[in-house]
Structure formats: structure tokens, C-alpha cells
Amino acid sequence: MSTIGIIGAGAIGSAFARALARTGVEAVISNSRGPASLADLARELGPSITPGTREQAAAQDIVLVAVNWSRLPDALAGLPDFGGRIVIDANNPIEAPHFVPAELHGRMSSDVFTDLVPGARVVKAFNHLPAHFISDDPQAGDGRRALFFAGDDADAKSAVRALIERLGFFGIDMGSLGAGGRMIQIPGGPLAVLDLVKFG
Fold first, then answer.
1. Between 90 and which of 38, 45, 126, 175 could a Cys-Cys bridge form, CB atoms 3.0 to 4.6 Å apart?
2. Are 86 and 121 contacting, i.e. CB atoms less than 8 angstroms apart?
3. Residues with Cβ < 8 Å from 86, sequence gap 6 or more?
4. CB distance 91 to 184 below 8 Å
5. What are the Cα distances from residue 173, in Å, to 15, 99, 114, 153, 158?
6. Average pLDDT in the 147-168 region?
7. pTM above 0.90?
């Protein structure tokens, strides 16, 4: 199993960590305030989730980034080239509390994100549902909750699909970052905040 890093311990990052802990997947989680600030969360989640520095999280095989949109440049600045490793873009170009869309000057949010993670194979995922759907039990009656993902590298998408399904969800490949990423982006994506369940 690939090693997992998490940059950002807000709603999505901590929900993802809870999903990993629930299934025994080990991960390094980081935030802007340093490992000591994550001690309580780590105790809550158990020994599979380790607080670390941003650099330690970024060094893992698969790195999920979930940071407030305006803070992404600072959160990712100065990190080494990702050298072909997988980075999951779990971000949306809006921010609480007012959820005003960011000005992207006609670009897709994942295009902007990709510029911030040189050398990464970017897959957009874990961004289209409220955080509690990620940390909650993915079983819904006789079915599994669906999670969409999109990217331009087939092997990277395969690895993210395997992670999604290890966490108990049903992964749905939406195609390229340009096409699929637009479908699942908040705001405006027609599949954003759409809770689907796969039966059978």
C-alpha cells in the first residue's frame, strides 16, 4: 500500500484522516501550525495517523492537499519537486464563511493547483461532498457511497481509485482534469454536492 500524506487538517483533511484511520491506513498529517497542534487529533484517531511537518507529509507516495483556497500558495511554497508522485487536489475555489467564488481568470481550479505542485501527477478527488460524507461510514443501506475523481494520468487515477475503494467507497472516473474536474468542482460543477449510492 502506498504511503499517504495530508497537507491541511481542516474539515476535509481531518475527515480524510478519519476515513484512513477507520480502515487502518497509515498517514502523516500536517498543518500550518506544526505537529504539536495536531496531538489531540492524533490521539483521537489512533496510532495509524501521525502528526508531521508539511515536508514530511509532502514526501509520501500519495499526498492529499486540502487547504483554504487563498492559503494554497503559502501552504505549498518551497516544497521540492514531486517527481511524478501523486497529489490529490481536494480543494475548491471558495472559502467559508461567505463561499464567494475565487477569481480564476477563466482557468480551471485544478489548472491553478497543478502549477503549485511541480512534478506531481494531479488527481482531483474528495472535494465534491461535504466533509462528513468522507469520514462517515461509506455504506448506505445495501450500497456504497460514490466518490468522483478526475485526472490526466491513468496510473495515478488507478491508484486513487484503489485508495477510494479501500476506504469503502465506490470510485467513479470522470475523465480528464479539464472535463471531469469541471464537473465536480464547487462551485458550478453539475455533479458537485451530489450524493450518489452504488447498489449491487
1. 126
2. yes
3. 2, 61, 62, 63, 120, 121, 122, 123, 156, 159, 160
4. no
5. 21, 27, 19, 12, 9
6. 98
7. yes
What is the separation of C-alpha 102 from the centre of its chain, rounded to a whole number of angstroms? 19
For 160-185, b where at least 16 C-beta lie within 10 A, e where not — what string? Answer: bbebbeebebbbbebeebeebbbbbb
Give me 115's grid cell.
Answer: 502549477
Q: What pLDDT, on the 0 to 100 scale, is given for residue 105?
A: 86
pLDDT, tens digit, 9 for 90 and up, residues 49-84: 999 999 999 999 999 999 999 999 999 999 999 999
User: What is the Cα–Cα distance from 178 to 51, expressed in whole angstroms?
Assistant: 33
Q: Based on the number of CB atoms within 10 Å of its own CB, is 71 exposed (0-12), middle (13-18) or buried (19 or more)?
A: middle
Q: Is the pLDDT of residue 97 over 80?
A: no
Distance CA(135)–CA(151), nearest Å, equals 23
